[in-house]
Sequence to fold (242 residues):
Amino acid sequence: MAKKKKNQKIDESTPVNETVSAKKSNRVLKREAKVAQKRRSKLMQASIVGLAIIAVVATLAWPQGGMKAVSQVRLISDPTVGAEAAPIVITEFADFGCHGCQGWHEAGIKDRILEEYGDKVQFVWKDFPVITAQSPKAAEAGQCAYDQDMFWSFHDLVYESHAGLAVNTLKRHAEAVGMDMNTFNQCLDSGQHEATVAHDLEFARSLRLRATPSFRVNGRTLPGPPGYEQLASIIEDALVSN
Fold:
């Protein structure tokens, strides 16, 4: 008859095969939990990337600071005078509140160049409103005038009147040159062309222009506002090189 070993205990409540099965189940559950956690992390990263893309698209589609949206065609459309297909393009970056710009206009250089060179030249206006606190709104007024094909008559009156750039003064000028005042007032009061003016200003800054007026001839920046003889000489040289 076999003798029983002392202190040997047998737990009959949980069979050995069930204990092993439970351990395997715990391992499976832990592994599944890790897989689920990784999946949640990937989904969260994808959501963040998606939101970032949406934010970028929204930023590109709409102007900053609550400005009204302006079509790309209108943003790159500028007031011009002279031949449309002229070989010489003279771009003026100017400010309605700039005395130097006013002086250059009153010197009649643009008119003399247009008379002398005819369909060989075109002048382009771009807003560079940095001189006075009222300059940006005056630039908007010019763009509203451009919408009615009256930019140059408005431009001339602003410079020649010496009456300042108060909004009421700008509206009087618009009325004096014969604009539709309901359309002009709605355009100016609503800030319809804040983004247009901001676009020109950003372009001027990208060129590192530091003064008003600044001029470029066929994409080459001039060192300062040119006199008639200087500008005529530049045009002659450009015509030869073309």
